[in-house]
Amino acid sequence: MWKSADAKYFYNIDGWGDGYFDINSNGHLVVLPQRNSIGVDLMELTKSLISKGLKPPYLIRFPQILKDRIERLINAFQDAISEFNYQNVYCPVFPMKVNSRREVIQTILSAGTPWNYGLEVGSKAELAIAISLLRDQDALLICNGFKDREFIEMLLLFSKIHKNSVIVSDNLNELELILKLSKTLKVSPLIGLRLKLTSAGSGKWIASGGEASKFGMNIPSVLKAVDILDEKGKIENLKMINFHIGSQITDIKKIQGALMEATRIYTKLVKMGLNVVYLNVGGGLGIDYEGTFTTSDSSTNYDLQEYSNQIVYGIKGICKEENIKPPIIVSESGRFVTAHHSILITNFLDKRSNTPLHDLDEEEIDENTSNYILELYDGYKNIDEDNYVEYYHDAIKNREYLLASFNLGHISLEDRGLADVLYWEIARKAIKFAKIDENMSEEFRTLEKILNYTYIANFSLFQSTVDVWGNNQIFPIIPIHGLNKTPKDKGIVGDITCDSDGELKEFPRRMETARNIEFPFTNGEPSFVGITLVGAYQDSLGGNHNLFGRVTELSINVDAGGKYSIQEISEVSEVGKMVEVMKYSYSELSKNFNANVKEAQKNKAIKDSDAKKIIKKYEQFYKSSSYLED
Length: 630
Ligand code: PLP
Prior knowledge:
Elements: H1 4-10, H2 13-16, E1 21-23, E2 29-31, E3 40-41, H3 42-51, E4 58-61, H4 63-83, E5 90-95, H5 102-111, E6 118-121, H6 124-133, E7 141-143, H7 149-161, E8 165-169, H8 172-185, E9 190-194, H9 219-231, E10 238-242, H10 252-271, E11 278-280, H11 304-322, E12 328-331, H12 335-338, E13 342-353, H13 371-382, H14 388-407, H15 413-436, H16 442-450, E14 453-457, H17 461-464, H18 466-471, E15 477-479, E16 489-494, E17 503-504, E18 517-519, E19 528-531, H19 538-541, E20 552-558, E21 564-570, H20 575-581, H21 586-602, H22 608-622
Parallel strand pairs: 4-20, 5-6, 5-12, 6-7, 7-8, 8-9, 9-10, 10-11, 11-12, 14-16
Antiparallel strand pairs: 1-2, 2-3, 4-13, 13-14, 13-19, 15-19, 16-17, 16-18, 20-21
The structure holds pyridoxal-5'-phosphate.
Pyridoxal-5'-phosphate binds at residues 95, 98, 120, 144, 244, 247-248, 282-285, 332-336, 536.
């Protein structure tokens, strides 16, 4: 008897859920934004949204999860600070590129107020948002990345009203420009230098660190930067040293290595007489998307507390050796803060098989049937647990010969169809016997992949989980109902874009990832799944490939009794909106379309009443969802 607890174990929810997910006795997936309280039943929520006329897919945001992540981050650093008696403070900053959605930034700033949560920006648009929303004078504003005159001037002027604005540079020409513009604008900005460390990170973003990385100053450039600041009388303005060795660092050793190098550089600069006070360790704190607690690319071999302890203890140790005051520790954790806060709920539309599933019509086999087919038929009838390898190889051979004969025109289309049905039936039987025999060799593993099913889900991978495509990232995906029933079926998940890359093919399980996801429902039932942990990067990286736009988004709060309230809804992008993204206008398109209809009317291809209907339909179509509705 399969129970909800079995599903929880099977889908490894405790491995990747970090306390925010559970399964209730109805077998529905539940989100617990405050971890230990009662959660919201996602299937009930989905039914209620459908009854209100809102159709899936939905991106559901839980601002309370963002708040909880912030508190966990701060608590972990504060615990480490008190445990190791660190003689300075921790200062959190949110990097806007990880998720710059209004709801997310507003929630982070309001939830982070008690700890003066700051923002890190890397573009002019991010700066425009940050300098408007950041009202806390004690919070840091850190400006990174490539900058032009406009960008620098805006930040410099803002730093007249926000004393904690730090302009970070990793380029000597840019530093000279910053100093020149600050003189003109009569501003004395706080300056940071981003280091290029020799220590690299690990995982998919390994190239963000190390000597070949795109960003950062090597040591000779840092020394030159110090000379430039000194010459211009601005040495006192250098307040921060930064590094970032890449996102999703999978291995704690890499963090320790980079930290050691950066802290040593920090201490040497202080010993040279510089008044640097902040050591900014960047991002990189990873998420265990697989729940395997390993150094595999979508996992981590450490948790938040170990990360914070390593940073605090590591910096303290080196500062003690060098006999200098430990710095204010700044970190720019984005993935950790946002990943869990949103989940994409989507519905399955279809189940597809790569191979024919047609019943075999044995009457088609008679004395005129080709020998290859007779041999395939014999294999189909007599394959068993002892001969399955040999019979399967015979089937491959016979099918190859048959295909060659077909290409030469000697085989009819009907016989070709019959051979396909027989061949794949033999393959299915062979896989069944290979499994019983525990003989999943490379050959049978490949065969199993071909025999797989694809569940078509109503979403665009390129809009909602683009890192699967760009970085082979894994997101935990799980049915949101039926979890108290034994899984009946399995397959991979395909999206609705016309792109064969739009597939999810790797799924978290307890020990390692699986190549299929198991479902408790079969084809034909309304079935819903949640793609979880999509809150970091996907909102900003997701694109409009195939002109699928934003899905319906909802922000939801859940009270202590599990009752939810919808804080905000933004409805799905309509066809017209996506068309306009590509610079078409309704007036132009409808004018052309109507002209096409009129032409057909004139040529008597359609009746006048049809013409009216078609024109009306175009208007409605333009306003319909860019996703599939039924
Ligand atoms: N800081 C900088 C400079 C970054 O480039 C990034 C992202 O790569 C981050 C912080 C955020 O990193 P993470 O999401 O791993 O916390």
